[in-house]
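FIELD: query
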Amino acid sequence: MHSNNEAVCEIGAELEFVRERLHVVDEAGTVHVGSDAFAELWNRTPGQGFLARLARAPILRTFSRLLYNVFAALLYRWNRMKGRW
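FIELD: result
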């Protein structure tokens, strides 16, 4: 998205939202956002499946989403202050 802003149209999201949150599109075309995107990546990375199961566990899922959203917002704000976008 950084070098091709028009690619954001492929997933039907706003450019600034894509810059703020990680987006992953799986082979079925499903878009995973934020901590769910990390869980999807971990699920497909050898040896990292346990992280995906932790992030998707009912009790931890809400906490991981909240933690990710706070971190992503702060990182996005920092990148904007540094003039990266």
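FIELD: remark
The beta strands are 23-25, 31-33.
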